[in-house]
Known about the structure:
Layout: H1 8-23, H2 32-50, H3 55-62, H4 70-77, E1 79-83, E2 96-103, E3 106-113, H5 119-124, H6 132-147, E4 152-158, H7 165-169, H8 172-185, E5 190-199, H9 200-204, E6 211-215, E7 219-221, H10 225-232, H11 239-246, H12 250-256, E8 261-263, H13 274-292, H14 297-309
Parallel strand pairs: 3-4, 4-5, 5-6, 5-7, 6-8
Antiparallel strand pairs: 1-2, 2-3
Amino acid sequence: MQVLEFEKPVAELEAKIEELRHLSDDGSVNIADEVARLQSKVEKQLRGIYGKLTPAQKVQVARHPDRPHCLDYVREIVTDFTPLAGDRAFAEDQAIIGGLGRIGGQPCVIIGQERGHDTDSRIRHNFGMAKPEGYRKAQRLMNLAARFHLPIVTFVDTAGAFPGVDAEARGQAEAIARSIEVCLSVEVPLIAVVIGEGGSGGAIAIAAGDRVLMLEHAIYSVISPEGCASILWRSRDQAGEAAAALRLTAQDLHQLGVIDAIIPEPLGGAHRQPQDVFENVRKALAHEISQLMGVSGHTLLDRRHAKFLSMGKKGLS
């Protein structure tokens, strides 16, 4: 597992624990007490580190290469998943994953951004950066959900929409705007979960929902800290300062009313204990779906519109 700079003291302790465990493999040395003492020290250090992460450090955690991605959540918490491909106009975009499945027994339409875990999968999924056909596929699936009265669950994890010339030539901005429009107009529950990095319009294109949830160490922002620093200071060296100014953490966004709830992560982040975070997300989604399924379509629309129109007022007085 990749170790972040601020996690190095913990990694050193964990390395000592592994050494001691290897020593005890032959049964001649009983080091259980020492391992327990070091493990307690690891947990104490993790609580200290993760209890006071700076916004810049939260960005690193949200982007951790071992952090669970969309397909991991689909495999672990969605049953009977049937993928659906293509925008029925141009191509299949594997940066956007979509299909039908069940969460807690409830049939749903699942849409998410997949970044990939290794070089091959990252290239195949274009690092989670969708092109217009990806957003048009998302629109198709949302309209499908509305037709069959199925709730929509989206997993948000992208640095932003793909900025290439070919994407712009095929109407990237229009595709994102239309996707947001569909999010705001479907008369079925739409629940979005920011599981890693929610970047710019590429994220909000599938996140304008009735309920927007964020993992504890995820980030959600109109621009990346590096992009912001490049514009304001003409240097990426101020990315840490930009991260603080952008108010991109789950805690800041909950205070501002941009998101509705924070899903806790296990000690040390989702990349350390993914099974725990899968269970936390599953429970949160099952709860939100049960709360929204009995609400009429017109009421959902009225509440959704009011929510986004009032955004920005909370926490600014």
